[in-house]
Amino acid sequence: MSNVYRWRSNPTILARLVNANDIQTWKSKQVILKPNEACAFIIDGRIGDIVSEKIVRNIGGGLGRYLGDMLGATATDRRMLFAMTGPADISIPFENNLPNGTKVQGFANLRVQIRDDDIPKLLNMFANSAPILDRERLIKVLQHELNNRVIAPSLSLCQSDEDLRKPDFQEQFEMRAEVEMRATLSTLGFTFLKAFVATNSTDNEKIAQLRSELSAATQTEGAHAEALMERIAIREAATLRRIECEVSVAKAEAAGRVSVELESELKELRKQEAQWEAELKRDQGKSELKMKEASHKTEQAMALFEQVQAKKRERIEQQHGHQNQRMDKQNDLQVKMMEMAAENGALTPEVMQEFLKQQTAQKAVDGSGGENPSSTIGVQQAKVCDSCGKAVQAEWSTCPYCGFNFI
């Protein structure tokens, strides 16, 4: 709304004195007073009504107000004193020393309030200053008095830094502030509600805090170190256990591999043994087969040999028979020839000698033509096998009956 007048443009403003004659607009202004705002009208130097929680219309400006001023139908001096009636906290900084020389800094907080009946007293603030009262201006007005009459005496009763943190110090400060500042605040239009002091950390407290932080950091570091050692111990135990497990697994795997290798070697040995047994059986079969073949061949050879010997004996017997017949015939012929020679008177010593020579030569020829079977068999059967006792040929190196080797 363009016709609304705002007297408070900053949250730090506590009160403001407005001259209605300075509001010059063609449209009349109005102000809306909130529950924590109040306004006192001052007309021609006299304090009029004090209003709150309402809309005050026609506070300034407008054509009617202009015409009234021109005709002298309105008041000559019209002022409005606006104020915040809610509680307000005023933080006043200070810096002082304790009796032991410790420097103390902080803020003294005063909680004050402007009541509706005390609004006209604010004119004392605007008598020789700007028509705006904010927190900063109020701090400047109260700081020196508060520091000398309340803060310094309160700190003088503290013997150490610990006394600043005790509840008794706050109670003494509040009672002293109420007693010493009530009159001043009442004169300015403020009502004292509460007071407390907030001090910053002193040097000794900072040192103690630093020591505490260092101790806490040391304990924290020690706890971290212990936790780290425990984690390292746990990791070490876990690593050792893992190594033991790996060693056990490796031993088991090695034993398994050895068992597998032994089983494989055993299988190979069994396979080789079976192969050797098969080869042995094969060789035995071959040997038996060869022995059977050799025995069969020997038997065949012996049968053939017997056949040959029988045929040889027959042939020798036939040769002897023929030889005997021929010799008998020759002898008969020679006898007949000798008888014929004797009959004819031709039997001389030379004829006898020639006859004997021819007979000797003929015997030699007959003797070379055949052998005596009995003598040949005797020579052939002169060698006997030492193992089986059977007769063998002299030129044989192995017995054909038992396989005995003569060499």
Walk me through this protein's architecture.
The strands form four sheets. This protein has a five-stranded antiparallel β-sheet with strand order 4-3-6-1-9. A three-stranded antiparallel β-sheet has the order 7-8-10. It has a two-stranded antiparallel ribbon with strand order 2-5. α2 crosses α3. The protein is rod-shaped and about 240 Å long. The chain starts with 12 loop residues before the first strand and ends in a 15-residue tail after the last strand. Among the domains are: 13-84, no CATH class; 88-200, Tetrahydropterin Synthase, Chain A (2-Layer Sandwich), CATH 3.30.479; 372-407. It is α+β, with helices and mostly antiparallel strands and 407 residues long. A hairpin with a 6-residue loop joins β11 (383-384) and β12. It has helices at residues 63-71, 135-156, 167-188, 203-344, 349-369, 373-380, and strands spanning 13-19, 29-32, 37-43, 46-52, 55-60, 78-84, 88-97, 103-113, 132-134, 191-199, 383-384, 391-392.
Tally of contiguous helical segments: 6
Number of strands: 12
Shape: rod-shaped
Series of secondary-structure elements, N-terminal to C-terminal: EEEEEHEEEEHHEHHHEE
**Strand coverage percent:** 15-25%
Q: What's the CATH C level of the domain at 88-200?
A: Alpha Beta
What is the residue-mean pLDDT, rounded to a whole number? Answer: 78
